[in-house]
Amino acid sequence: MSVKSRKNSKKISNKKADAPFDAALWKKAADIAAGYKLVIQKEPGVGYLGRSIELPMVMADGKTVPLCAEATLEAQTTAVATMLEKGQNPPLASSSDKRSAQVNVRLTEEEKLRLEEAAQRQGFRGISDYVRSAALKEAS
User: Fold this and answer.
1) What is the CA radius of gyration of the chain?
2) What is the mean pLDDT of residues 11-29?
3) What is the DSSP code string of 6-51?
């Protein structure tokens, strides 16, 4: 590989994660992710590991709490931007409107298991968040 090729490949590998996204979409994703509640835990050998309540499967690490928070917010923003780009609705911030109304739905054990698995695959905290998101998406 020539020196020029190495320089070009270095530029590509140093590209920010937000480069593939439209600027307006990235801003919307950043605004949504900024409302998510971060959970940062000390991890031996890593430093700190961060995730959010809303997207628990999207994680990042850092040597310090501020570095971990910054990396986690960028990872969350990337995940939300990807969801928006695919036409999906990202989870609402846990701090958004207080939910006071309740709807009860009876399920078979098999239906409950299928919903739990689907919720987990998509990064939801549980069935209620998953069902609420899917139902609201369908209703809009």
Assistant:
1) 18
2) 69
3) HHHHHHHHT--TTTTS-HHHHHHHHHHHHTS-EEEEEETTTEEEEE
Q: How far apart are CA 127 and CA 125, in angstroms?
A: 7
Which of 30-39, 78-87, 126-135 shows the lowest mean pLDDT across its residues? 126-135
- The reply to whether CATH 3.30.160.250 applies to domain 17-91 is yes
Give the model's pLDDT for residue 19. 58
Domain locations in the chain as residue ranges:
17-91, 97-140
Partners of 49 in the β-ladder: 41, 61
User: Tokens 């923003």 belong to which residue?
Assistant: 77
Pairwise CA distance, residues 98 & 132, whole Å: 14
pTM, two decimal places: 0.58
Count of C-beta atoms within a 10 Å radius of residue 58? 20
